[in-house]
Design goal:
The complex is a heterodimer of chains A (638) and B (263). By secondary structure, chain A is α+β, with helices and mostly antiparallel strands. Chain A is built from 16 helices and 24 strands. In chain A, the strands form 5 sheets. In chain A, strands 1, 4, 5, 6, 7, 11, 12, 15, 17, 18, 20, 23 and 24 form a 13-stranded mixed β-sheet that branches. In chain A, strands 14-13-16-19 form a 4-stranded antiparallel β-sheet, with helices on one face. In chain B, a hairpin with a 4-residue loop joins β3 (201-205) and β4. The chains are: A alpha+beta (638), B alpha+beta (263). At the A-B interface, α1, α4, α5, α8 and α10 of A face α1, α2, α4, α8 and α9 of B.
Chain lengths: 638, 263
């Protein structure tokens, strides 16, 4: 017998022991019936009363790239951190969220999900083999039997007659399933209906030629359904493949799934095309499928902000937020950006395109709500400027990360300071459960923030009184109107809106609230207009040439401090669209701007006593913001 | 079941883990021998790919789809082997990190699977009661004022009319987290300094301005019994133990090295 074989045989003995111990002591899983009972015990409010905060896009060490960058924290640490417990980051820094999240979607890349676990998992299969089981039993019986088993094992290895359990395709398939199932079990273990909700999901990492067409897929269901499928990897080179997968899941299990596109800003114009995925004219069927499968889109996250772009909206003085570095090319920077690409990348333009496609085909493919998320690859869902834990473990807090070129693709043109701290998803749900959060996303009753937790309400209708805020206006909003994400059927009257923005209780004051409208003209052209509807100190800050002057800036660049001596704690108003024409097809969404505050590079400069590059310093202060989902209005009788 | 003590020894885990790696490579690893320029996609390989597809899409792949999967598999394998041939895996910080993390994983995953007795969990709960104690709950009414002076005037004059703001006027048995989310950290901390009473107190500062508060009740959480939160305690115990296992395993390996750091 060769030396290698001998070592292998001795190794095999140890494996059998270790693996056997594993099999006989698998941790108990939470009974799905218990989960269902706990969910059923949660009372539903009459209408959504409090907003739930979460991140739908967090990577852990099950993501091949996150792992490659060195993260060692897994789904369990991610869940602990999100619900407010202290964890130690991969680089050894203790981390605790000052304010816990209400929900979390762990969205690891489906391609190569947890492959690094496979090597460990592979031998586990072996114990199912009758021979190995017998050996295992012998080893436990007595030292003598154990020695005999080892001898048998060595003989078998030498003779090449070891069990072929590992070569069985069915069992190999099982390893991939186990990784997914292990994650699903952890999710159920951390699920506390009414208090903290982990949702199952994954990221579909589709990027033809480096153009980012990624989607996060999120499930409504627990393990009894989600364990019936595997995350969808890049099986086909067309987005329809993902939708087929979602259809198949729903049909086979009775569950529900939705997809959330993100980083359209890095798609080089491909995320929101006027054509279908193969370049042909968009059919109503394709349009309906997109709208049904993608009810919400990530408007803002670490890799930039996708709400609007100065090229498309030259009159919008706030459109340049989170663009630097990101708008020069696609995700990998394999292709530079050309002007015609912008229109397929930014959400405001996509909403407009949706209107014009609807006019042509009768179906609006881009009728989506907006959320923010992190896309953090550190297992830590941090969205605030003063707690930015980096895009990945390679840029967790350090003295060099802000000025350093960042390392995706060609390393040209993008720097650490281009990263945003990441956003959060705000969800108006009747209770903190999987079903309620999922359903709120389906009806788009959600909004995006770039990190701060401002509370934004937005209702559209026709019958709101001028003094609506004097009474129980939230109830009135639901009773005689539709909330954000809803649709109004045009009846010839001007639509009215209740809009309220309450500042983050531990954050900055508010500068202004805007309503952004997009609509189609009679000749088919699509337009947009930004209305300032409420702003702080409005008696002193009068409009100049139709514009509300800047709110000011209290940020001390040396100490990274600001004061709430400007701005307002709450801004709210009843607004009527003065430019509405009967029969118009339009959308309206709210943008809330905070007063200027320091961005994370400024906190880094202070903490690590380093100097930011001039470009980074120019961008070290920003107005954080929220984007509501739109309310649509169309011709009557739709 | 209770496993005998040796199964909990890090050395056993590590031996088993190392053996697992070795075994895997010596059996399964052969077809992927990077030194070879022969690649055989066996019927089993194809069947595995097909099964994975079926598991994902709830239907078997067509022949064309299977061919594409095989092509993708081959492409990755060819490039992988050529990369190894060129030595691209050496001195690669990502590969290095990845492999070292795999070692960590091996150490930790053993702890993930060990069974734990009730008495060990009861000890754990007794040792870390703060981790399992539910939030305190508060019942109170609040009146809002933008300026402190206005709040003081209202308090002195016995007025119960605050200024308009979109915050609830009353909270009933609401847990601390929820209050902190709506009214902020400063306000919530101040609640702990108030004694429950039927009288208005304050002004209390928040991120919004000032508040008069009538704290009607406060229920401080007590640690639940193990039987009610066994899953939670076990999850906590397990992840803490995992971290310890990783440490132990590393120390074991580290102790076999002679390290000199030149300065």
């Amino acid at each position: 017998m060769g030396k290698g074989k001998l070592i292998a045989s001795v190794g095999a003995a140890a494996v059998v022991l270790g693996v056997g111990a594993y099999w006989l002591s698998r941790p108990e899983i939470v009974d799905p019936a218990d989960v269902a009972d706990a969910e059923a015990a949660i009372a539903l409010a009459e209408y959504p009363e409090t907003v739930l905060w979460g991140d739908t896009h967090l990577h852990t060490d099950n993501s091949i790239d996150a792992f490659g960058f060195g993260v060692r924290l897994g789904p369990e640490d991610a869940l602990k951190f999100a619900r407010g417990e202290e964890v130690t980051s991969t680089t050894g820094v203790k981390a605790k969220l000052a304010r816990p999240l209400d929900f979390l979607v762990i969205a690891d890349h489906s391609d190569g999900l947890g492959v690094m676990r496979r090597i460990y998992d592979a031998p586990r299969i072996a114990i199912r083999d009758a021979t190995l089981r017998r050996w295992y039993d012998m080893m436990h019986e007595s030292p003598q039997q154990s020695a005999r088993a080892t001898a048998e094992l060595i003989t078998a290895a030498g003779a090449g007659t070891l069990p072929e359990a590992m070569m069985d395709p069915e069992r190999r398939e099982k390893t991939a399933t186990d990784i997914w199932n292990a994650q699903l079990q952890v999710l159920d273990r951390y699920y506390q209906p009414g208090k903290f909700t982990p949702l199952a999901g994954f990221e579909y990492t589709y990027q033809p030629d480096g153009n980012n067409l990624h989607r996060v897929v999120m499930f409504r269901d627990g393990i009894e359904r989600t364990s019936k499928v595997l995350p969808y990897p890049g099986l086909t080179e067309e987005i329809g493949g993902l939708f087929d997968y979602m259809d198949a899941y729903e049909q086979a299990t009775g569950g529900r799934a939705l997809a959330i596109p993100h980083n359209s800003n890095l798609s080089n114009g491909l995320m929101f095309e006027l054509t279908d995925a193969s370049g042909g004219p968009m059919s109503a069927r394709y349009a309906r499928r997109r709208a049904m499968r993608e009810p919400v889109v990530e408007a803002t996250q670490i890799k930039g902000d996708s709400e609007a772009h100065p090229f498309l909206s030259p009159n919008d003085e706030f459109a340049d937020f989170g663009k630097k570095g990101w708008d020069i090319g696609n995700l990998t920077l394999s292709r530079a950006k050309a002007d015609p690409m912008y229109a397929g990348e930014y959400l405001r333009e996509a909403l407009k395109r949706g209107l014009s496609i609807e006019e042509r085909t009768g179906a609006n493919p881009y009728k989506f709500g907006m959320i923010g998320s992190t896309d953090s690859h550190t297992s830590l869902a941090t969205g605030d400027e003063d707690n930015f834990f980096g895009k990945h473990t390679g840029n967790e807090p350090s003295a060099v990360r802000a000025n350093a070129p960042q390392n995706l693709g060609t390393q040209v043109g993008r720097f650490g300071w281009n990263y945003l701290a990441g956003g959060y998803a705000a969800v108006w749900a009747r209770a903190n459960t999987r079903a309620e959060i999922f359903d709120a996303m389906m009806r788009r009753e959600v909004y995006a923030t770039t990190g701060p937790r401002m509370v934004v309400r937005f209702f559209g209708g026709f019958d709101f009184a001028d003094n609506a805020f004097d009474g129980d206006w939230v109830r009135a909003g639901y009773k005689s109107g539709v909330p954000m994400g809803g649709e109004l059927a045009g009846n010839g009257r001007q639509p009215r809106f209740l809009v309220s923005a309450l500042k983050d209780p531990d954050g900055a004051h508010l500068d202004r609230v805007q309503i952004i409208k997009g609509w189609t003209e009679a000749d088919g052209t699509v337009r947009e207009k930004i209305y300032d509807v409420a702003w702080s100190d409005s008696d002193k800050r009068r409009r100049v040439n139709g514009r509300v002057p800047a709110v000011g800036d209290t940020v001390d660049r040396k100490t990274a401090r600001y004061t709430n001596s400007i701005g307002a704690a709450e801004l709210r108003t009843v607004w009527t669209d003065p430019d509405y024409r009967a029969g118009q097809r339009a959308f309206y969404y709210v943008r809330v701007l905070e007063i200027p505050t320091p961005r994370w590079p400024l906190f880094d400069a202070l903490r690590f006593d380093m100097t930011l590059s001039p470009e980074a310093m120019d961008d070290a202060v920003a107005q954080e913001r929220a984007y509501s989902s739109p309310i649509w209005i169309g011709p009557a009788g739709r | 079941m209770i496993l005998s003590a040796w199964t909990r020894e890090p050395i056993v885990h590590f031996l088993a883990a190392a053996a697992a790696l070795f075994l895997y490579f010596s059996w399964v690893g052969e077809p992927a021998d990077p030194a070879s320029r022969a690649i055989t996609v066996t019927r089993e390989d194809r069947a595995a790919l097909a099964l994975q597809w079926e598991r994902t899409m709830q239907r078997p792949p067509t022949d064309a789809e299977l061919d594409i999967m095989v092509e993708t598999f081959l492409r990755e394998e060819v490039l992988y082997r050529e990369a190894i041939r060129l030595g691209l895996d050496r001195d690669d910080p990502v590969v290095r990190k990845r492999l070292s993390n795999k070692m960590d994983y091996l150490a930790a995953s053993m702890a993930e699977t060990a069974a734990v007795s009730d008495s060990a969990l009861a000890d754990w709960l007794a040792k870390h009661p703060d981790r399992f104690t539910p939030d305190a709950r508060y019942s109170f009414d609040q009146l809002y004022f933008a300026e402190r002076a206005a709040a003081e005037v209202a308090l002195a004059g016995g007025s119960t009319i605050g200024e308009a703001i979109s915050l609830p006027a009353s909270f009933e048995n609401t847990d601390r987290n929820r209050i902190e989310g709506q009214l902020g950290q400063a306000f919530t901390a101040a609640l702990d300094d108030l004694e429950p009473s039927q009288r208005w107190a304050g002004p209390v500062a928040s991120g919004f301005g000032w508040h008069l508060v009538r704290l009607r009740g406060r229920v401080v959480g007590t640690p639940p019994e193990l039987i009610d939160i066994r899953d939670q305690v076990e999850a906590d115990w397990r992840s803490s133990t995992e971290a310890q296992r990783r440490k132990d395993a590393y120390q074991l390996l580290r102790s076999a090295y002679q390290v000199s750091v030149e300065k």
